[in-house]
Fold this sequence. Notes:
heterodimer; A: mainly alpha; Cytochrome Bc1 Complex, Chain D, domain 2; 6 strands; B: alpha+beta; FAD/NAD(P)-binding domain; seven-stranded antiparallel beta sheet; globular
Amino acid sequence: xxxxxxxxxxxxxxxxxxxxxxxxxxxxxxxxxxxxxxxxxxxxxxxxxxxxxxxxxxxxxxxxxxxxxxxxxxxxxxxxxxxxxxxxxxxxxxxxxxxxxxxxxxxxxxxxxxxxxxxxxxxxxxxxxxxxxxxxxxxxxxxxxxxxxxxxxxxxxxxxxxxxxxxxxxxxxxxxxxxxxxxxxxxxxxxxxxxxxxxxxxxxxxxxxxxxxxxxxxxxxxxxxxxxxxxxxxxxxxxxxxxxxxxxxxxxxxxxxxxxxxxxxxxxxxxxxxxxxxxxxxxxxxxxxxxxxxxxxxxxxxxxxxxxxxxxxxxxxxxxxxxxxxxxxxxxxxxxxxxxxxxxxxxxxxxxxxxxxxxxxxxxxxxxxxxxxxxxxxxxxxxxxxxxxxxxxxxxxxxxxxxxxxxxxxxxxxxxxxxx
Amino acid sequence: xxxxxxxxxxxxxxxxxxxxxxxxxxxxxxxxxxxxxxxxxxxxxxxxxxxxxxxxxxxxxxxxxxxxxxxxxxxxxxxxxxxxxxxxxxxxxxxxxxxxxxxxxxxxxxxxxxxxxxxxxxxxxxxxxxxxxxxxxxxxxxxxxxxxxxxxxxxxxxxxxxxxxxxxxxxxxxxxxxxxxxxxxxxxxxxxxxxxxxxxxxxxxxxxxxxxxxxxxxxxxxxxxxxxxxxxxxxxxxxxxxxxxxxxxxxxxxxxxxxxxxxxxxxxxxxxxxxxxxxxxxxxxxxxxxxxxxxxxxxxxxxxxxxxxxxxxxxxxxxxxxxxxxxxxxxxxxxxxxxxxxxxxxxxxxxxxxxxxxxxxxxxxxxxxxxxxxxxxxxxxxxxxxxxxxxxxxxxxxxxxxxxxxxxxxxxxxxxxxxxxxxxxxxxxxxxxxxxxxxxxxxxxxxxxxxxxxxxxxxxxxxxxxxxxxxxxxxxxxxxxxxxxxxxxxxxxxxxxxxxxxxxxxxxxxxxxxxxxxxxxxxxxxxxxxxxxxxxxxxxxxxxxxxxxxxxxxxxxxxxxxxxxxxxxxxxxxxxxxxxxxxxxxxxxxxx
Lengths: 420, 592
């Protein structure tokens, strides 16, 4: 460990020296120049692709990128920083190098470390040019004076200096390296997914300290009261039954023949992927569909199990009018439970949440309907929710474990504490 | 003190079908539009979700989706020499409230009027002579023809995804459709819905009697549909909770399921719900509207200035706002002068209840949809020779089984006690084997000199404004029409094999407590002469050219069909005139 850290530090120092040498050469065409349209436009697109607005724009405020939005982490709340070019409270006084260090190394100009709520472990894969293009775009925004005290974490997580340990454990700095054995489109997808898209921030399981379990990359993780599903090509739980076009369409429109995006993914579609190019979304689909998942052993519940019998009756009574008897729903309007990885998922957070509280899908320019699932939490007991969820995850070829009344009770309690 | 809001290009009063259509058309033009709606915002999943919308007591009996008479109501009398009293519980009609308006609670029966309906006085006079019409009948031509309106009917049907079978494609009569309809430019966007047993049986009997039955055009989806705005609807599940209810399945065309999702994304559109417009403001000349005044739920009064005012509230409220704002001359039935309040009409509805042998007939009436049904149009409008019958007008009729809901669907043969064990037994025997169509005979009501709207001299609303007073009774022409149609309708059920057919004629006097339809029409009618009409053929006020009045209040008389298709087509027609002509040169589109 110590040896690895020392190597990493040496590499960093060498990189910094190289940067310092390169800077005078760049000055003639400074990437942060407000006159360089191509770079600013590239930065605008990357700001969208990196979904900076998801955290740095408070939806309750009219000013974009002025920070202050509470970001929920398993350890407490972090307020997103002001990234407008305000000199006092934003990033206006930072050098490009300081900006790049913050985005790709997780370190602030004063040497303090960022919390990984800022997805620098992913942004580190971005190229320096891309990061400085983002800076160039942010520089064009109106500066907003908004002093944000980001660190709202409880002891001991509020000790920023402890983050060096976290970085040592979980942070692997270094830009994306293309795999020459793969196609250009795969490599572009890999760059977007691993870098600016930071898909793993939600979709990769985390350790108890919030670091990626890299061996289980993209196999799904519970976050903010939802389960961000498996986005590998796993047949039962991931995107195995989705075509590349299905994946790209979902990201573009928020809806496809199988599913509709809601919750944090709905926000991602609205703020980010719906504004990305078809080529980039196709690249993302290509990369994700090339990722194999870990297929878990099926554990189907017998159709005559009392839970299944009760669940089938509830499904018929309350769900089938929209989702249809065969579970296939209505393309682009009512999600297809028979093909959906959310329904099949072993992790029932989303399934329980949607049944208890309902869900509003995202409305986009291409799919403006924005249908919503009503809440059934007032109507169904924990045992009834457990039964219908068990039925859904064991029908139409799905095979999942029985969901217990106790699991639903706990989920209901957790949901009650949430205002989103 | 009234607080003044920043000026908008357009203010829309009432966000139902016509308000939504106008808002979408005018925001497309780049105009900054605000819609002010008296009732609440409504969404499918949060306001009428599938897990409680099928609550007959809540919605059908207790009228949850409708205007509460406590908020405002009308007074009613049959005759001019009577004293009108306030309606304290809705009966004959159901004034809507809230975003989506009547488009939320309707059955989605999506008809076009007949070509002759638009030139009614001319047509009837030519065919039967002027003396055939009753002297006090004040029917008139609309100032627009069916052919002019056809492209806009088409737009509305494609917006809604109307399910139906064309009867006349570009002049060619089509097998299985309504042979009496005017020529349509293309087929319905969706095939007709499936028909349950009783409907098929009605069609068979009607064919054997020489009629040409056809499926009722329906705004409930026979299959999944994406409309030209990109909004999606799902297939109807035939649950039979349509009229009086919102559709929980995104299956019934409504502003919510066809337009509003697109409209609310537009930065140049704003809705103020729970806000009641109390008057349209005029400048000192009285010839130009300067905007509207409205009151929010806190009682705060606001002025919303605007260049263009679109009045798109329910029929009676359109007329009330015109009268209270001093726009146009109030109708005086004694002097037979003035236009605002004139030519007010409703509908002439009746039904038959038929009892079949329970051992042979099981109809499953709960398999239903608001506008499935097999209809015949032989006795509508002037589709038949009225000469021998001594009346004018007519209506479609059909086995339109809209529901089998338990509280309402309790047909019992005559002579059954009204309660107790024998009543229960009769209901049990009849539920599956009796037929009582949801609409039955859907007759026209033509306009008369002494059927009108004016301001009540006694009763006021909470703002101390006079309530609207309805003076309405059936005239002999309509009662004759109804007797003839009801008899013809009963013959079909007889031919279906019913062992008892009970005719429920519509009789006078007009009963404001007995439900007919919500199709109140007229009061601010369109026409060619400012002496007999409030608005021109483009729905533009003759008196205040920057005011356009939408809706059935513009119908000079009511035809034998449901009005929504026509009032929506007129909204598109009016929007087109505003977009292509009015905005370039704001002012009267026609000079009288």
